[in-house]
Amino acid sequence: MIITRMYSRASALYRSITAICAVVLVLSACGPVCAKTVGRSGNVYRIAEPDALRELEDKAASIDLKVRIKKEETTQKIEQYHPSNVVSLPSAKKDRTFLVDMTYKLEFDIPDGKGGILYPKGFVFNPLEYVPFSRTIIVLNGAAENEVDWFTASEYYKRLDVVLLITDGRWKDLTSRIKRNVFYLTEPVATRFRVSATPSVIVKKDNKYMEVKEIHVPEKKDSKNRRN
Questions:
Q1: How many other CB atoms are found less than 10 A from the CB of residue 195?
Q2: Taking the complete model, does pTM exceed 0.85, yes or no?
Q3: In what helix (H) or strand (E) does residue 152 lie, and over which residues does it extend?
Q4: Pick from 134, 97, 100: which is nearest to 210 by CA?
Q5: What element of type H or E holds 210?
Q6: How far apart are the first and last CA of the chain?
Q7: Could you state, in order of their start, the residue ranges of all structural domains in the chain?
Q8: How many whole angstroms separate alpha carbon 44 and alpha carbon 49?
Q9: Fewer beta carbons below 10 Å: N end or C end of the chain?
C-alpha cells in the first residue's frame, strides 16, 4: 500500500515535470521574439519540494528496517520458545528398567465419516499392534552437563532413529552444541510413558509394551573433588 502511494506520487511529479519541459521547449522555439526579460519582483525563495527519488529511497529504507526488526523479533521468540507444559524431572539415582503397557481406552467416539461410529467410546486397543514404531526416545536434562556428556559419548548420539527430548535447558543452545534436533518433554508424553527420571531410554519391547530404562549418570566433579 505504501509503495503504491509512493509510486503514484512519483508518477504525478514526473508528469508535471514533463509538462513543464514541453512548455519550456515551445518557448525556446519562439526565439528572442517571445523572450522578454521582466526583471525580479518580490522576494525570492529556494524551492522546497523534496526530491522524489530520495523520498522513495527513504521510504524503502524505513520499510526494510521495519521488516528486519520484525524478523529479528520472530527469530528471538522461536529461539526462546519453551512450552508451558514441559515436565522437569529429577536425575536417576540408580539404574532401573520397567515396562509400560500401551493399551488405551477411547474416551470418545470416533466417527466413520458416513454418519456412523467407527470406534465407540470405551473401545480398548493397543496402538503398537497397528502402528509400527522403530524409534528410540532419549529423555534427558539439557541443562545438566553430566547428562549431555553421557549422551554425546553414548551409542545413541549418532543414530538417526533417536528422538531427543529435554526436560530443562534451551533447545537452541543444545541444538547448536550437539548438532541434532532437540524437542521438549511435555506432560502428555511423560505421563503416557511414565517417565520419572533422567536420562531415560524408551524403546518398543513388543506389540504391547514399551520398555523404559532409567540410567544413573554420576555427577561431574570439579578440581577440588566437589560435585557440580
A1: 21
A2: no
A3: helix 145-153
A4: 100
A5: strand 209-214
A6: 58
A7: 96-102+132-214
A8: 15
A9: N
Task: Write phi, then psi, for 201 (nearest 5 degrees).
Answer: -115, 125
81: CB partners within 8 A, 6+ apart: 171
> Which residue bears the cell 553430566?
146
> Which triple of cell numbers denotes residue 174?
543444545
Query: Are residues 156 and 140 in contact, defined by beta-carbon separation less than 8 angstroms?
Result: no
- List, in sequence order, every beta strand (DSSP E) within the chain: 96-101, 104-105, 110-111, 117-119, 124-125, 136-140, 162-166, 183-184, 200-204, 209-214
**The C-alpha cell of 26 is what?**
515551445
Distance CA 127, CA 103 (A): 7
Q: Which residue has the cell 537452541?
A: 172
- pLDDT tops 70 at residue 121: yes
Backbone angles phi, psi at 206, to 5 degrees: -160, -160
Residue-wise pLDDT tens digits, 21-72: 443 333 333 344 444 444 555 555 555 555 666 776 677 777 776 677 666 6
Q: What is the pLDDT of residues 58-115, one digit of tens each?
A: 777 777 766 776 666 676 666 666 778 999 999 999 999 999 999 989 999 999 899 9
Backbone angles phi, psi at 153, to 5 degrees: -95, -5
Closest-CA residue to 214 (of 140, 111, 130) = 140
Torsion on CA atoms 81, 82, 85, 87, rounded to nearest 10: 150
118: its cell numbers:
467407527
